[in-house]
Amino acid sequence: MQSISLRNQHPLTLGLAVILLTISSFAVAAEPITVIIGEPQVIPVSPHNGYHCEWSPDSTRIAFASWGDGGASAWTVPVAGGEATQLPLGLSGDMYLSWSPDCSQIAFDAYDPGASGPSKLWIYTFGEDAPIRIRSSQSIAPTWSPDGERIAFQTHIGSSMAIFSVRTDGTGLRRYTFGNSENFHPDWSPDSESIAFTSDRNGNADIWIQPIAGGDAIQVTDDPALDDRCCWSPDGQWLAFVSLRSGNRDVWLKPVAGGEAVQVTNAPSNESMPTWSPDGKYLLYGDNANSNAFYVVSIDFVTPTADTSVGQVKSMFRR
């Protein structure tokens, strides 16, 4: 397994060793794939109450929002550990954060100065004194396309929520979802050709994929429980997401091409906002049991060996 220099284990899953789950129906692979999930490790951000985390494309930093007495603020912290640095945004709001591919900027949603809503779309350039607003209408949960050309977001259209995108200067508005359903929390595919998102268009909150060139959306999950806050793996073959299917909010994986879902976390608390490391070897997420830290697990995808039975699920928890 891969290792990363972090802190001690997650306090609520202490003793978790390794989970081996064989995905025999993953259509892209020539052979079944075993997912090996490592022990959760801690990235402390105390004294900040961290949420909305995202790994930087160069692997060195984590951007996150923090909520305090003065409202929301945005920070970065080194993955290897160290002090968090506040971004000079001077704004408050939802504070979903998304890195530009070259790590020189961060897109985020925030209120206008002195306002209480709705959130607008802003871009902060590192080294500048203040961000610039690129969209004056409601724009929530921005996500920067990997090719650097566009930023997708959600916004209300009448009584529904729809997914749109704009160029990085705020021009070229495009709409991707239609109808009266709620569509939210978009995430670009690594090739910038599709957007994954949550939608209740079939009466339940599931993960869907919409090609930006048009055509029908593809349903990825169909569990009766809520599935939300998805994130593409860097190779485009997996989606990490949060689901209530185990009774509380846990992180799960699902092959984009079809196959069974894989449970990543199994704590009694609620996890949130999974985000991949750029090399696809780790998942970062938050946990409401400790808002002063984020957690990282290693994710290895391997073909079965002689001591791993194809089609069998092996869970090694110390109860």
Question: In percent terms, what proportion of residues is strand?
Answer: over 45%
Mean pLDDT, to the nearest integer, reads: 86
Element-by-element helix/strand order: EEEEEEEEEEEEEEEEEEEEEEEEEEE
Structural class of the secondary structure composition? mainly beta
The shape, in one word, is: globular
Model regions low in confidence, pLDDT < 50 over at least 5 residues: 1-30, 308-319
**Number of extended strands:** 27
How many helices?
Answer: 0
> Portion of residues in helices?
under 10%
Distance between the termini: 23 Å
Describe the structure concisely.
This protein is mainly β and 319 residues long. It has strands at residues 18-23, 33-37, 41-44, 50-55, 61-68, 71-78, 85-86, 97-99, 105-110, 120-125, 132-135, 140-144, 150-157, 160-167, 174-175, 183-188, 194-199, 206-211, 218-219, 227-232, 238-243, 250-255, 262-263, 271-276, 282-287, 293-302, 313-316.
What is the secondary structure topology, with strand pairs?
Blueprint: E1 18-23, E2 33-37, E3 41-44, E4 50-55, E5 61-68, E6 71-78, E7 85-86, E8 97-99, E9 105-110, E10 120-125, E11 132-135, E12 140-144, E13 150-157, E14 160-167, E15 174-175, E16 183-188, E17 194-199, E18 206-211, E19 218-219, E20 227-232, E21 238-243, E22 250-255, E23 262-263, E24 271-276, E25 282-287, E26 293-302, E27 313-316
Antiparallel strand pairs: 1-2, 1-27, 2-26, 3-26, 4-5, 5-6, 6-7, 8-9, 9-10, 10-11, 12-13, 13-14, 14-15, 16-17, 17-18, 18-19, 20-21, 21-22, 22-23, 24-25, 25-26
